[in-house]
Amino acid sequence: MASLDALEASDPSSVAQQIAAAQSAATVEHDVAQPDPPATPTVTAPSVQVGDFGVLEVDTDPDRDSALGDDDNESFTTSINSTVTDYKFEHGRRYHAYQDGKYALPNDDAEINRLELQHRIWQLSLSGRLNLAPISPTVRNVLDIGCGTGAWVIEFAEAHPDCRVTGADLSPIQPTLVPPNVEFIVDDITSPWIYMQRFDYIHSRAITVGIADWSGLVEQCWKNLEPGGWVEFQEYHMPVTADDGTMANGPAFQLWNDSLKAATTKVGIHLDAILNVPPTLKQRGFVNLGTAGTKWPIGPWPKGKREKKIGELTEKDLSSAIEGSSLRLFTKVLGWSMEEVQKLVKEVERDIAARRMHSYIPIDFLWAQKPYDAVD
Ligand SMILES: C[S@@+](CC[C@H](N)C(=O)[O-])C[C@H]1O[C@@H](n2cnc3c(N)ncnc32)[C@H](O)[C@@H]1O
Asked: Membrane spanning segments where (predicted)?
């Protein structure tokens, strides 16, 4: 966290202020201790940018803000061991066993390392914040759906020792040595949820590839939230894009984007689905919607030290994700041969490494509250 703090200190203005602005616009002042919760106002927060890089500016003097030499370039190897289940092995990668075939990405060590690296990018994006929804500091029950390695769950639990935090995922790839207020369960979040209690806050992050029916997911969140509880989605949407036409400098990367969209669409998954979730939330009765967005540059091409850092990490993250996200989808759904997939993967990796694109992944934050007077 030291380098994150240093970055924050060098840029005291925008991140904290903009997050605060987003939250104050969306916040309903509520104190969970008070006996009569206020009637829920129906204000909708304006969209805001998180961080100071809503517009990424191309750096023409890359040495200035170089992030090279920072210790974050170290290996992201984790000590997590997956021991439990009858995993599926295909094309040299390992996949979840529970609800076999439900999720297209692997769950092996390479993917675990990638998720840990990506967790660092989320941390940088939010200056260490874990949530943007203005939840009460005294939340009691929290659920993270599609929790992956459980990094978010563990950090949230450590920050809220009186709160019970549950992480649910298809894969039991979480560590066993965890804070006492953490519980991990293997579950398919697209099946009906059966929990003993309702939650004060339901969080999810980067689950788009696993979700075909967002209305169904919103419905489950509604049913499993306490009145006054918050739901928050921290997502990305695809395709990867560039504002200045430089995607043309990466033809293989562009082909991969198009093919990923074709494959996911064929199985009913829309990589830009999060953009349509706000009306779904409103329609279901959620109030106090808040949204924020940022961009993860791919490579250290933008100006700014933090932007470069996020760019370097995102470049690593994506380079690792290209193969993992393509193998199952391109062979099984698009009918490509393994050799064709591997050839494209190599070409995409070359396109990314050449750093001739000013590309980025659009990132979306979305939160909303179940009214205190909700009727289920
Ligand atoms: C890209 S990872 C993100 C993990 C974690 N949220 C994070 O941000 O580090 C997506 C996770 O969603 C999980 N997932 C996908 N579909 C799921 C489903 N139907 N039920 C439960 N988990 C699912 C995957 O197993 C994977 O761990």
From this structure: none
Q: What is the CATH number of the domain that holds 360?
A: 3.40.50.150
Å from CA of 369 to ligand 1 middle: 23
* Helix or strand (DSSP H, E) at 347: helix 338-354
Is 150 near ligand 1, meaning CB less than 6 Å away? no
The per-residue DSSP string of 9-26 comes to: HH--SHHHHHHHHHHHHH
Domain membership of residue 42 (yes or no) is: no
Distance (Å) from CA 115 to ligand 1 centroid = 10
3-state secondary structure at position 86: coil
Question: If we measure between CA atoms, which residue out of 119, 145, 293 comes closest to residue 210?
Answer: 145
Q: Residue 60: which domain range? A: 2-31+47-369
- Would you state the structure tokens that stand for residue 76, as one six-digit string? 């992201």
The number of the ligand 1 atom at minimal distance from the alpha carbon of 115 is: 9
Residues 369/40, Cβ–Cβ less than 8 Å: yes
Tens digits of pLDDT across the chain (376 residues)? 223 333 333 333 344 444 444 444 433 222 223 333 434 333 333 344 455 446 788 887 766 555 443 434 332 222 333 444 789 999 999 999 898 889 999 999 999 999 999 999 999 999 999 999 999 988 999 999 999 999 999 999 999 999 999 999 999 999 999 999 999 999 999 999 999 999 999 999 999 999 999 999 999 999 999 999 999 999 999 999 999 999 999 999 999 999 999 999 999 999 999 999 999 999 999 999 999 999 999 999 999 999 999 999 999 999 999 999 999 999 999 999 999 999 999 999 999 999 999 999 999 999 999 999 998 7
Sign of the alpha-carbon torsion through 337, 343, 345, 347: negative
- Residue 171 maps to a domain: yes
Residue 374 maps to a domain: no
Total number of domains in the chain: 1
Q: Is the CB of 274 under 6 A from ligand 1?
A: no
Measure 294 CA to ligand 1 centroid, in angstroms: 21
- Write the CA distances from 34 to 30, 38, 372, integer angstroms: 8, 9, 12
